[in-house]
Amino acid sequence: MSAPLPYRPLDAELATERLTLTPFQPEDAVAYAAIWTARGGEPASAEQVLARIPALEGQLADHRLGLRMIRLAGERWPVGYVALVPGRATVDEPELVSELLPAVHGHGLATEAARALVAAAWRTGRERLWTTIAATNAASLRVAAKVGFVAQHVTHDERGEVVWCALERPAQQ
Which pLDDT belongs to residue 55? Predict the structure, then answer.
């Protein structure tokens, strides 16, 4: 039996001036599939999402991490997601990942959602977060910089250069 994690659970729901970030619900499957497909990934069905996400969410919760669907305040339909995952990083220093539907790009929503999730990550007790971004993804690199992430190094994967950016917990947090 492994020792309990030294982290508090990630807040279930987060709210900003324009957004509500909530855990994935089965009725979000169609929206999540649309988000996943819009990024140029393999087309996904709601059934595929429903087969995948609940297990992922359980694993994330076990590590005091999580996936949050991004909704415009007062709206039911998600426009994206933001998550803290081990990803390319670790449970202790998780990776922040996010995706938005193209229709809502360019309005600061990714920055707003990322800031909310970063604040929640600090409340879990984390000291450092990572985000990994394709070097060609200028918009996501700008979002990361606005949130406070700083480029640390570059690696390569099957799609090209990947910029690793870190964010340290501020001393007053």
Answer: 82
| Residue 7: per-residue pLDDT | 93
Residue 110 phi/psi, 5-degree rounding, is: -65, -40
Amino acid in position 34: A
Tokens of 29: 């499957």
Round to whole Å and give the CA distance between 20 and 58.
21
Burial 109-138 (b: 16+ CB within 10 A, else e): bbbbbbbbbbebbeebebeebbbbbeeeee
Phi and psi angles of residue 66, each rounded to the nearest 5 degrees, phi first: 180, 165
Task: Say if pTM beats, i.e. exceeds, 0.85.
Answer: yes
Checking if the pLDDT of 41 tops 80, the result is no
Q: What end-to-end distance do the CA atoms of the chain give, in Å?
A: 32
How far from chain centre, in Å, is Cα 11?
A: 13
Task: Report how far residue 108's alpha carbon sits from residue 126's, in angstroms, rounded to the nearest whole number.
Answer: 25
Distance CA 11, CA 20 (A): 12
H or E segment to which residue 111 belongs = helix 109-124
Which residue ranges form the domains of the chain, and what is each CATH number? 14-168 (3.40.630.30)
What single letter denotes the amino acid at residue 13?
E
Torsion of CA 57, 51, 71, 10, to 10 degrees: 0
